[in-house]
Amino acid sequence: MNKSQLIQALAKEEDLPLKKAEEVVNTVFSEMESALIRGERVEIRGLGSFKVKQYEGYKGRNPKSGEVIEVARKKLPFFKVGKELKERVDVY
User: What is the spatial distance between Cα 69 and Cα 18, in angstroms, rounded to a whole number?
Assistant: First the structure.
């Protein structure tokens, strides 16, 4: 499912105009993004949680040339799946 499919599903489920459903989805994602930028954790019960992880720099290797390169430290968003979702997905 992509963002436009989510918007269409919300519009259909809640009987909303497509524009209103798009506003709702964009607002939710925007608020989640803002919280992560501020370094806050975002938890959605039954789904999982998002947080920003800091990764230290390290020496890597260019696979093409074999040259050693410095990889800078970075921050990346990280998602941890919740127990409920993990159990629902892992059904045989």
Answer: 48
CB 10 within 8 A of CB 25: yes
Confidence (pTM) = 0.80
> Same domain for 28 and 57?
no
Q: What residues contact 45, with CB distance under 8 A and at least 6 apart? A: 82, 84
Are 63 and 53 part of one and the same domain? yes
| Domain that residue 84 falls in | 41-92
In 3-state terms, what secondary structure has residue 6?
A: helix
Q: Are residues 28 and 59 in the same domain?
A: no
For the segment 45-91, what is each residue's pLDDT rounded down to a tens digit?
A: 999 999 999 999 999 999 999 999 999 999 999 999 999 999 999 88
- 6, 8, 10, 16 alpha-carbon torsion, rounded to 10°: 150
**Residues 36, 39, 40, CA angle at the centre, nearest 5°?**
70
Q: CB neighbours (10 Å) of residue 21?
A: 20
